[in-house]
Amino acid sequence: MALHAVILAGGAGERFWPASRNKRPKPFLEVVDGQSLLESTHRRAKRFASPGCVWVVCGRNHAAAIRRETGLPANRVLVEPLRRNTAMAMAWVAQHIAAQDPEGILTVLPSDHRIPDARAFAAAIRKAARAARSARCIVTLGVKPTRPDTGYGYIQVGPPAGRSHPGLRQVKRFVEKPDAAKARSYLRRGGFLWNAGIFVLGARTLLHELEACAPEVHRALAPMARNPRARSGAALLKAYRKAPSLPIDTAVMERSKNVWTLPVAFHWSDVGTWLSLAEELGVAPGESRVLHGELLSDDRGGNLVWGADRPIALLGVEGLAVIDTGDVLLVTNLDRSPDVRGIVADLKKKGRRELT
Amino acid sequence: MALHAVILAGGAGERFWPASRNKRPKPFLEVVDGQSLLESTHRRAKRFASPGCVWVVCGRNHAAAIRRETGLPANRVLVEPLRRNTAMAMAWVAQHIAAQDPEGILTVLPSDHRIPDARAFAAAIRKAARAARSARCIVTLGVKPTRPDTGYGYIQVGPPAGRSHPGLRQVKRFVEKPDAAKARSYLRRGGFLWNAGIFVLGARTLLHELEACAPEVHRALAPMARNPRARSGAALLKAYRKAPSLPIDTAVMERSKNVWTLPVAFHWSDVGTWLSLAEELGVAPGESRVLHGELLSDDRGGNLVWGADRPIALLGVEGLAVIDTGDVLLVTNLDRSPDVRGIVADLKKKGRRELT
Question: What per-residue confidence (pLDDT) applies to A185?
Fold first, then answer.
């Protein structure tokens, strides 16, 4: 009946192109705090997880690097044979852990977020885990918003979850990334939290919820029933081939009646774009930040610079990200940087895989 | 009594940094018309100069490259032992040519301008040469302005030069680069021409004018008097050591009473900055230009791109010059690009000669 940490490291981080690449995606980048986002996440997980209960779910390409970086043993790095989004990843890991720890509680967390206050984070997870265990519910972390961000989904909080769970709230609804006007109204009205995409729930609770809310995902697990602890082989591949590709949010969270949220106020960022990284690093009017390389000159400031083998000089520009990875150079307006995914899509279409 | 073309190739072209460098300055760059600015200038010069009468004046570092590029024999590449600006360069070449062709007429022209209509240019020079020869005056080319440019000096035209020289005008005064309001008023009022820095004058006329207007430059020639055709040696070095560093404009043109101008209407540009190059190349809102390398993506346009070994992606930016020379990268607002000289000055101060 342990508290497990399950780090999802399957994302591509395309909005971090060209630094985030197929071969070395965003979780491996040292962009803040002097360590990779994955390593920070791993350290955070070790704070609250029971001994030997940190897991990573990832794709084939990155398993070796993840083991190297985290030092985790092979049996706790679950390698998905195919990409099937987060619902299937969580389904598999829930079945796998339930087979050895039926009462186990899972904390599922992305590998590429930033939460500097690891102590506050661990305390919140422990509190959420107590609720998840005793009420057999799903608990999502809801971060108190500090600005009308249009890059995050929101949670509208419902009534208190009950006397025995002080601080926890029922979820009234999940809302997709809003436009600027809606985001401002959420902040003004109160009662809206950022959906951090961090879930605390019993392994068996998740399996039950999948059965109820996303039966096609649950059915995909069937080939694994005979040997649920297998980490590879034909049954796993069969299961993944069968599984639909669904995010856990739409497959379960938005459908289940059994979701609570724990409002938290510590600093959190999904470091989702060059713009949000710039904010994390303190880029502001007149203030530039250099992640790598040498900046020779920058008369206006407000820029984010990632240099490679050649020094960079900026003149008369502000609010830019200049990202030189050695094999490709991106110059983007920070505000527009989320659209870098379009460039990646275009490169794929043109068969320029070496650049993606 | 030949018509000589004297190409001044001593400038550093620092406003073209980082493409223009000590080792390979601006005249050597292929930025328009598929050939280097020097090569274009040389072709233009050959159109009007008498056979065997094209000369280049340059510094030690570039003599070999200039001979390679132009195919000129060594005796027509005059290598200055020190840099002493244009007054001394013109003084030396005038003395040198006068020693073999006392009645020779010189057309002195910078090596790094752009004049696409070489035929019209040659016709103008021949006309100016006739006046310079018969009236023993200095003729400057005055380009009819097409916009209120603040990057050029202006010539205010005076009365007609006389019946025997139709089209030629006396010079009322030279004006320094004006501010925007003045430039607009020049264009509105008329009677102002861009000073192209192209002069047509007898070799001996120049020597006389130097004696009158810039006697310290004229005196510096004294050590060469015994052997005015020497192209190197102690006397030349002594002359250059003695010479003040003055531009011909302030040393002679602005002081002499003997300066006429020939108004011309053909397209001319000093290609002085990334901004003016962008204009030459047709960079406009929505229209980018790529000088070298590969541009992967550019959603807004209006940018000037010079790539090296890595492709470049632009997103949400316009009016930029992105110049990657392989060893250094410049990202500048085109409007601010003339200030790139400040970066060069700064690098020199810091001893970063490898980057200048």
Answer: 97
